[in-house]
Structure formats: structure tokens, C-alpha cells
């Protein structure tokens, strides 16, 4: 994948808590079905080129990588797409945390339904630019 932007997800209430690829329990986590890697070999700050290469290899053609209990790496072909992925990945993790807080067993979608749902989201990729411009319009700069 040609990466235009690498956004680091640092969400103590999200990926750092769960440290896993989101289970497809509804349409938001299913958006990332098959598009997320789980980098359990993540150690610490990437201070050597080898670690960067390893991380890139772990990501492969996927757009998200959960890095142990550290957070995640979210990428996209454009900055807008990376921000869109970051926004919805965070929402997916919030969905999982809320569902797990009930103590009930998760009702996970079948692989076929999760794949179909994830594929269905691809038709909306063009909306990332509009979403990104809206988010930027909500920021007040000093």
C-alpha cells in the first residue's frame, strides 16, 4: 500500500484497553473485518530501522494494526482516508467496550456476514474527504 499518512491511535479507552482486532459485533467493528492486523511482537518505541520494517511487514496491505497494548497504527491512501479510518476504528473500539461492559457474551457476526458488511463499507470511501473537511471545520484555532 502506498501510504500518504500514518496516524497513531492513542486511546486509553479503546485499543489500548482491548489490545485486539475488533470482533465484528455490529456494522462499525465489521467495517474493519479482514483489514486489521494484530502486531503482538510490538515492543516499544521504534528506534531502529528494523522495527519500522517489521511493523510495515506486520501491516502488510491492511489499513490498521493493533500494536500489543500500545495502541494502533492507522493508514490510508490520503490524509482524509487515514483520519476516516482512525475515527471509525475508535468508534468500533468504543462499541466493543460498551458491549463488554454488560458482562453478557458477545453476539459476533458470522465470517460471511462480517466480510459482506466490511466489503459494503468500501462503497463509501469517497465520503472520507467530506467527513475530513467537516471535522476540520469544527476545530477552533487560537
How does this structure look, described?
The protein contains six helices and four strands; from the N terminus they run E-H-H-E-H-E-E-H-H-H. It has helices at 15-18, 27-30, 49-59, 79-101, 111-121, 128-137; strands spanning 5-9, 36-39, 64-67, 71-76. Strands 1-4-3-2 form a four-stranded mixed sheet, sandwiched between helices. Helix 3 links the parallel strand 2 and strand 3 (64-67). The longest helix is centred in the middle third of the chain and has 23 residues, at 79-101.
Order of adjacent strands in the largest pleated sheet: 1-4-3-2
Straight-line N-to-C gap: 36 Å
**Mind telling me the C-alpha Rg?**
15 Å
* DSSP helical segment count: 6
Note the beta-strand portion.
5-15%
Low-confidence stretches: 1-13
Instruction: Note the overall shape.
Output: globular
Task: Please state the oligomeric state of the protein chains shown.
Answer: single chain
State the helical fraction: 40-55%
Taking the sheet with the most strands, its summary is: 4 strands, mixed
| Helix/strand order | EHHEHEEHHH
Query: What number is the mean pLDDT?
Result: 80
Short description:
The chain has 142 residues and is α+β, with helices and mostly antiparallel strands. The protein contains 6 helices and 4 strands, in the order βααβαββααα.
Fill in the keyword field for this structure.
142 residues; alpha+beta; four-stranded mixed sheet; 6 helices
Amino acid at each position: 500500500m502506498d501510504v500518504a499518512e500514518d496516524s497513531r491511535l492513542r486511546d486509553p479507552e479503546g485499543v489500548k484497553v482491548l489490545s485486539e482486532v475488533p470482533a465484528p459485533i455490529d456494522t462499525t467493528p465489521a467495517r474493519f473485518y479482514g483489514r486489521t492486523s494484530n502486531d503482538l511482537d510490538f515492543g516499544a518505541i521504534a528506534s531502529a530501522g528494523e522495527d519500522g520494517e517489521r511493523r510495515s511487514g506486520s501491516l502488510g496491505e491492511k489499513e490498521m494494526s493493533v500494536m500489543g497494548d500500545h495502541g494502533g497504527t492507522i493508514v490510508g491512501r490520503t490524509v482524509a482516508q487515514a483520519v476516516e479510518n482512525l475515527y471509525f476504528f475508535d468508534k468500533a473500539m468504543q462499541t466493543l467496550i460498551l458491549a463488554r461492559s454488560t458482562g453478557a457474551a458477545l453476539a459476533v457476526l458470522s465470517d460471511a456476514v462480517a466480510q459482506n458488511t466490511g466489503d459494503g463499507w468500501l462503497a463509501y470511501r469517497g465520503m472520507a474527504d467530506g467527513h475530513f473537511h467537516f471535522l476540520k471545520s469544527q476545530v477552533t484555532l487560537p
